[in-house]
């Protein structure tokens, strides 16, 4: 373990938690739950007070979709909003997942925004009031506040990236337009000690570059602390010597830690001015979300660590999981199936399993069962690995929380249909001409990781015999986990791990079914998930086939997630 470096102003960040408030039940290294995180934050606040420094909490969105405790209830999130709000968060923003479905955006506006009144920021996001149709800010555009112990004057913004897939009750204004608005131009002229830009935005992306330049154009040396999200990775980015960004991974695996020293604050009310330190310095850590680490970082133990509020939240999580029967076993996975830890195609690839075993059986409707069919799904529709053992109700939402259904273009020329998979996988520029990013079809982790990373102990790696990072012979062996390299080097993880292999996967995979044995068919049904409809139409157009949304017909009534769960019930026994 590596200790956390403290500064004058310190932060804990969560992002892309996607409903994993119960922690990871199958992975001990990420097994702390939201209640434990509440206790951790509270104990760290006590430590900050004792040291006379400040601690702020940040969350940058995508709190929902991706775990049974949110997705399995009706309405979705029946239990999660009340549990989540038990954590005090100083700056909180919206992710794209809060906006895909209109009911989720309604709940965000009606529950999360008031739960975090004053702290919920929406610099470039509006909501359409359902009764009047009036377009109003989702929450306040920014906030100015002074920190409790050192009196540091902070101005915080809350952004979302230039997202276009939102439902029709929200409006995401492009960042480039927002930063020209009067209120933003006035805000960046405020005299503050620090700007915080929190958002569901990747750190090196064009949105944060534009915001950085806008703030710098008015404040040549005020420190700026960015907090990012969306790409599901641990990341730290340098904008200039006084501006850095932190991103705390995904799925409650990581809690981000940031500390800044050398800020020219005013000091506590009544106290003399804060002595500016010699120079400004920024430090970051990525905390593995488990109790062992929480005890280590707080210097407490099993009996002294938990707070009443944390214990109550953990109890509420347990009760909600019971009420939703999330441990109900649908079948036993015979082995681990990996999204990115095994190459595609291979026997251990989750995508190979889907392509060869599952999709040919589930992408069928009785009235078209004998028609030659090409079925395409995007790899991003799968969100997590499947571990050997019980595949529960919870797991169904963990691997794919979306409510996407299958749709089809019927009787399309095979010569055109057979080109779609390759176009979606490799013709990014062709699709970009229609304003579509092919990379959005793949898992978000792949946004940042552009080539395979081969770790040690990997049966698929050439040689497969690299030595793990053992420091001394008598040290316990390290376990596989994050080995982050970022703009500050490779010292960021609070826990040392051996690296995990990451293989890139294609944007889409395809299964063929009911093809004649002797010759190519003349026509086929092209079946795909409704989410990828714009990409498929655009690829078809490129082949010279001008289909439109009117030509698309539903292909069955169940969601892809339900179809996969049915397959598992039929094929995997109950003997784990
Ligand atoms: N109905 C949907 C919605 C999204 N996806 C995939 O998820 C990606 C976005 O994930 P984040 O957690 O980073 O927001 C998106 O790019 C798609 O790949 C999907 O498959 N179906």
TrEMBL record:
GO biological process terms, semicolon-separated: NAD+ catabolic process
Question: SUPFAM superfamilies annotated for this entry?
Answer: 5'-nucleotidase (syn. UDP-sugar hydrolase), C-terminal domain (SSF55816), Metallo-dependent phosphatases (SSF56300)
The chain positions of domain Calcineurin-like phosphoesterase read 10-233
Pfam families named in the record? Metallophos (PF00149), NadN_nucleosid_C (PF21953)
> Which segments constitute the Putative 5'-nucleotidase C-terminal domain?
336-537
| CDD domains cross-referenced by the UniProt entry | MPP_YHR202W_N
GO CC terms: cytosol; extracellular region
Annotated Gene Ontology MF terms?
Answer: hydrolase activity
The organism is: Oidiodendron maius (strain Zn)
Q: What is this protein called?
A: Calcineurin-like phosphoesterase domain-containing protein
Q: Which InterPro entries is this protein grouped with?
A: 5'-Nucleotdase_C_sf (IPR036907), 5_nucleotidase/apyrase (IPR006179), Calcineurin-like_PHP (IPR004843), Metallo-depent_PP-like (IPR029052), Nucleosidase_C (IPR053828), Pesterase_C1039 (IPR014485), YHR202W_N (IPR041823)
Recorded superkingdom: Eukaryota
């Amino acid at each position: 373990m590596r200790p956390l470096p403290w500064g004058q102003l310190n932060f804990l960040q969560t992002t892309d938690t996607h409903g994993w408030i119960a922690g990871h039940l199958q992975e001990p290294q990420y097994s702390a739950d939201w209640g434990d995180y509440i206790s951790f934050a509270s104990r760290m606040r006590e430590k900050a007070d004792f040291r006379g420094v400040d601690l702020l909490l940040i969350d940058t969105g995508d709190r929902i979709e991706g775990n049974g405790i949110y997705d399995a209830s009706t309405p979705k999130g029946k239990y999660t909003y009340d549990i989540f709000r038990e954590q005090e968060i100083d700056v909180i923003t919206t992710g794209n997942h809060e906006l895909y479905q209109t009911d989720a955006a309604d709940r965000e506006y009606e529950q999360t925004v008031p739960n975090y009144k004053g702290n919920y920021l929406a610099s470039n996001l509006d909501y359409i009031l359902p009764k009047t149709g009036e377009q109003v800010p989702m929450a306040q555009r920014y906030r100015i506040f002074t920190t409790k112990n050192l009196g540091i004057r902070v101005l915080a913004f809350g952004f979302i990236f230039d997202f276009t897939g939102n439902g029709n009750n929200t409006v995401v204004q492009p960042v480039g337009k927002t930063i020209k608005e009067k209120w933003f131009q006035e805000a960046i002229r405020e005299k503050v000690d620090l700007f915080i830009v929190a958002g569901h935005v990747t750190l090196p992306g064009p949105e944060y570059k534009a915001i950085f330049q806008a703030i710098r154009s008015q404040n040549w040396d005020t420190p700026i602390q960015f907090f990012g999200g969306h790409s599901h990775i641990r990341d730290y980015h340098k904008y200039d010597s006084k501006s850095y960004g932190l991103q705390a991974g995904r799925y409650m695996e990581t809690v981000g830690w940031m500390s800044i020293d050398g800020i020219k604050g005013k000091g506590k009310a009544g106290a003399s001015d804060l002595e500016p330190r010699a120079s400004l310095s920024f430090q970051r850590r990525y905390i593995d979300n488990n109790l062992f680490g929480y005890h280590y970082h707080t210097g407490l133990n099993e009996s002294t660590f938990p707070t009443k509020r944390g214990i109550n939240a953990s109890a509420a999580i347990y009760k909600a999981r019971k009420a939703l029967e999330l441990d109900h076993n649908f079948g036993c996975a015979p082995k681990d199936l990996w999204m990115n830890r095994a190459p595609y195609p291979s026997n251990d690839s989750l995508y190979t399993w889907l392509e060869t075993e599952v999709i040919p059986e589930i992408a069928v409707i009785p009235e078209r069962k004998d028609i030659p069919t090409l079925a395409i799904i995007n790899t991003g529709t799968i969100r997590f690995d499947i571990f050997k053992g019980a595949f529960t109700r919870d797991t169904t939402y963990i691997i794919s929380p979306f409510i996407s259904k299958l749709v089809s273009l019927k009787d399309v020329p095979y010569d055109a249909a057979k080109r779609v998979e390759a176009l979606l996988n490799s013709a990014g520029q062709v699709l970009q001409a229609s304003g579509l990013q092919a990379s959005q079809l793949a898992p978000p982790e792949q946004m940042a990781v552009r080539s395979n990373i081969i770790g040690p102990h990997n049966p698929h790696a050439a040689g497969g015999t690299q030595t793990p990072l053992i420091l001394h012979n008598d040290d316990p062996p390290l376990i596989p986990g994050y080995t982050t390299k970022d703009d500050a080097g490779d010292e960021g993880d609070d826990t040392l791990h051996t690296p995990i292999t990451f293989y890139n996967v294609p944007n889409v995979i395809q299964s063929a079914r009911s093809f004649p044995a002797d010759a190519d068919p003349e026509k086929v049904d092209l079946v795909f998930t409704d989410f990828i409809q714009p990409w498929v139409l655009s690829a078809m157009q490129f082949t010279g086939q001008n289909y439109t949304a009117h030509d698309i017909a539903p292909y069955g009534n169940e969601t892809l997630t339900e179809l996969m769960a049915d397959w598992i019930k039929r094929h995997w026994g109950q003997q784990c």
